Amino acid sequence: MREKLKALAELQKVDLEVASLRKAADVHPRQISELERDLGVARSAIEAERARVTDLERQKALLEQNIADEKDKVKKWEGRLSDQRSTREYSALAREIDIAKKGILTQSEELTDKVKELATAREAIKSKESDFATRQQSLSGRMTELRGKLGEAEGQVKSLEGRRSEVAAAVDATLLRRYEVIRKKKLPAIVGVAAGTCQGCNMNVPPQLYNMLRTTLGTDVCPSCNRIIYAVEALQEKQPAADE
Ligand SMILES: [Zn+2]
User: Fold this and answer.
1) What domains can you pick out in the chain, each with its CATH number?
2) pLDDT, tens digit, 9 for 90 and up, residues 37-70
3) Cα of 210 to ligand 1 centre, how many Å?
4) How far is the CA of 18 from the centre of ligand 1 (A)?
5) What is the pLDDT of residue 244?
6) Residues whose CB is under 5 A from ligand 1 (ion)?
7) pTM for the whole thing?
8) Phi and psi (nearest 5°) for 205?
């Protein structure tokens, strides 16, 4: 009885190890995709800044073109001033020239602001790009590390699975079948009963059942959680090991 129990406990040890490895490995793909998302956000921020620079450049070129056109116009009008026959026509044209010059002044001020804005935006891109490069480097290092860990865990699981079939071969067939059914729903599937309490569900097992487990050193089923149970004394080495 005790040997059957020991074999099954050994199998569960392997299963628990596999489960904990899988759980730990689960975190890695999630972390990797989080890192990739972070990097994507940083990249979009740079692209938005670049689009802003393009827009500012377009506005700047437009202002420069307008100023040049206005200056040409003023020059042409100034050339015509002396051709004006009446004082009325002369002063009308002079007023137009004055208005155009004021317009040029306003647009020149706008242009100066635009140039400053462009310089600031270009600086912002530079600093964002350098941030991005630093981040990308550290993230790619972290990702390599995570992928390595993932691969390592997968390798460990594989080798444990190989070991599992060896261990499972030593387990009593009926007990193994029952264990496999429970294992699919809950792990641990086999638990000890200590001082009358099932360690799977923390409920007391009936005293009669507990006594029986202690006497036979075998297994039964917990009436509360349906796990396979045994008296913890059964796996304690102080038992006379006459069979070993
Ligand atoms: Zn239980």
Assistant:
1) 2-169 (1.10.287.1490), 173-235 (no CATH)
2) 988 998 999 999 999 999 999 999 999 999 999 9
3) 12
4) 23
5) 40
6) 198, 200-201, 222, 224-225
7) 0.63
8) -90, 155
